[in-house]
Amino acid sequence: MALIQQSDAALQASGGCAQPLTLLRERGQREVFCGLTSIVWLHRRMPDAFFLVVGSRTCAHLVQSAAGVMIFAEPRFGTAILGERDLAGLADANDELDRVVEQLLERRPEIRTLFLVGSCPSEVIKLDLANAAQRLSRRHLPRVRVVSYSGSGIETTFTQGEDNALAAMVPLLPHSEEESLLLVGTMADQVEDQLCRLFRQLGLSRVHTLPPRCSTDLPPVGPDTRILLCQPYLSATARALQGRGAQLVAAPYPLGVEGTTAWIQAAAGAFGLAANAVQPHLEAARQRGHQAVARYRDQLEGKRLFLLPDSQLEIPLARFLHQECGMVLQEVGTPYLDRLLMAAELAQLPTTTTISEGQHVDRQLERVRATRPDLVVCGLGLANPLEAEGMATKWSIELVFSPIQGYEQAGDLAELFARPLARRQRLHF
Predict the structure, then answer these.
(1) pLDDT band at 262 (very low <50, low <70, confident <90, very high)
(2) What is the three-state SS of 349-385?
(3) What is the spatial distance between Cα 198 and Cα 279, in angstroms, rounded to a whole number?
(4) Which domains are delineated in the chain?
(5) Residue 230 among known ligand-binding residues
(6) Any binding-site annotation on 120?
(7) Do the beta carbons of residue 169 and residue 49 sit within 8 Å?
(8) What pTM was estimated for this model as a whole?
(9) Is 34 annotated among the ligand-binding residues?
(10) Which pLDDT tens digit goes with each residue over 211-241?
């Protein structure tokens, strides 16, 4: 574990505080889901796509449990299970995979994009899914395009599954010289509709999304495309889009009223719109958001918050909960700190904030027990033990599945943190 006192050049350039934040770099035992979990929200986003995990029965149980799919449902994901013969090299795994894909496409003719999702077992036996995807695409185009990405949990946290999936789609995007705004990251359809409506009111008519609602309706990208990230964990996707010539808009993330305002203003500024011209269009939504958050501020203000690393949403959430709800930040953990994507968020955190990058579960739990925070945001595997020790917890994975971006959801986001505190208070009484 390394303790580093530093002030980012990127943070200072963005107008942030000159005083350094405290950064703990930790390496050790981790407690996170694997990237296969991201299939749960990606398959809902693109109804004409199918996600085929190439893995074990454990992979199949994980995804089905996370999605809550009943046995009689017809989901848009499945698992090509690697058996003992495949793992031992007694059978040609590529031939077996081709056979499973043929059966799947014959049974599900509505599939237009097939994602081959790598797992820990497929990576251990060095199954080349990239070549398999190219081979199967040649065979099934133009009806079905086959794309591959890694959802393995060996080196990644669960939200990076979406990052890998979107990065795999970037080479397929058509080229365009037209000026446009590209919203990158999966959001609930109703949230996306609300935000796109605000952009249209500002006169930004060419607004596209990645991932699209239809997997074959790929957004164009080019040198006049501005990238606005909706999720903070899309490092590989952002750099892949920049490699296609697109320009990244530096902005906080649309969590809470102030985060959403800064996010929209950053996009508007990238197209030459002045802040005083943008503000009147946002004022009504801002007022609604502030009123919704105010209902929970009394429950949250002054409460001590400890965020363990899990989803990479931790830093934007910490900014929202401190800035708009008055919570006191004891420690903000994140699995991976991308300073380029987090500069605007780091600039708004108090200088006394301790940020931990990476995970060493035992040491972090020792700090939790020593500080006894009012609320701990953590993964499912740590929540129940901490609850048994008398601490209120919030599952971080719930924040990925819930619609939390934008003005209309700001109150719902605050309520998600007020709810476990209210539950703990009732139990204590």
Answers:
(1) very high
(2) CCCCCEEEEEECHHHHHHHHHHHCCCEEEECHHHHHH
(3) 11
(4) 2-32+283-428 (3.40.50.1980), 35-156 (3.40.50.1980), 180-277 (3.40.50.1980)
(5) no
(6) yes
(7) no
(8) 0.90
(9) yes
(10) 999 999 999 999 999 999 999 999 999 999 9
